[in-house]
Amino acid sequence: MGQCHYNETIGFFYNNSGKELSSHWRPKDVVVVALGLTVSVLVLLTNLLVITAIASNRRFHQPIYYLLGNLAAADLFAGVAYLFLMFHTGPRTARLSLRGWFLRQGLLDTSLTASVATLLAIAVERHRSVMAVQLHSRLPHGRVVLLITGVWAAALGLGLLPAHSWHCLCSLDRCSRMAPLLSRSYLAVWALSSLLVFLLMVAVYTRIFFYVRRRVQRMAEHVSCHPRYRETTLSLVKTVVIILGAFVVCWTPGQVVLLLDGLDCKSCNVLAVEKYFLLLAESNSLVNAAVYSCRDAEMRRTFRRLLCCLCLRRSAREAARARASIRTGASTRLELPENGHALMDSTL
After folding, report:
1. Taking the model in full, what pTM does it have?
2. Which of 26, 60, 151, 175 is deepest in the core (most CB within 10 A)?
């Protein structure tokens, strides 16, 4: 092990990796931050709405919706992480301490890992319930809690690992270009692990698709079968497949770039696209929430009920303030008679 550089500045590691550290706001930085802040705020609001809807509607108190709620929580965390990044990027990066930089990176890694692990858990739960011919899995609530706890434990572990051991502070020749304080091996292992998880999910959903298609064909031959089961099953499968597809589309470009950087591809200009691919990845947290409202009729009704309640409460508060203002203005009117003494005239 070489000399460790725990007392160096962020600029030292950026110069070592060849990544530019700007001292002023460039037009590209302003555009990325403006888009990033907009996406982050939308992600926070939409995923808070999803979590509130799942918590307030008893029909959603099922394992699959607990997992979808956990996915919304991971996306909410991703919105917070990206918002933190937007406030500590550009020229502000140079003012970060090593701990601050690892915190910024750890938040992003943890939220992404939680999303990937939750999507895999959703795929496994859907496979289990569909194969058991159930609309909703009968997985015990305690086991669901353990599953969600395991997801976040793994996410926190991978998010904290670079700050404690898997960095390049003691081996500068192993530093990556996209994340100058992280080891290239960490980026390669993380990207390969995510791609492996994607392949597993694709295999699970492919098996679900063919199974459901065969079962629907058989059910169509029997009049006694209730069509609601077929519609609900297909709707849930389509919803999670759309979520998975959106995740793959949004995250695959970034993962490929991470893998190329982890493999030390000298001819690959990964720094030219990293910010845009990260913004694309963050937009997936917004897409997930939109998918819920578009695919699930009960979720749409719950959204409308919650939004209507907010509007009615605001209208009620405004009406109350208006009545109070009218009452105050009508109850006190001063008159000045000829003798100069003020008299109180009540009109109520």
Report:
1. 0.80
2. 151
